[in-house]
Design brief:
The protein is mainly α. The chain has 4 helices and no strands. The longest helix has 32 residues. It is elongated, with a radius of gyration of 15 Å.
Length: 99
Amino acid sequence: MQYVGRTWIAIPALFLALPVACVISVAALYGLAWPDRPDEVFSWAAFDVAEFVPWILTLALLPLASIGPWLKAALAVLSVPYSMLAFAAGELFIGCALG
């Protein structure tokens, strides 16, 4: 029973940590490109790397969770589109915050 309880803590933790990591990644892009816009300074490859670094770092936390390997694999696959959406939301948030 305790195993199931930890699962329900690990899954939301992953999906809450990912948007925070994406906002930090976008803020780093904006900080490195300041005073210009990141899309004027960096190539699309830099955006791809910045988009997947939070996803990879968040997945690195999965071994700390007490969940089964099949669930870890499912979370990794399902979190790819979520990561892309979180990165786009982070771009909108930081872009609007900086004007």
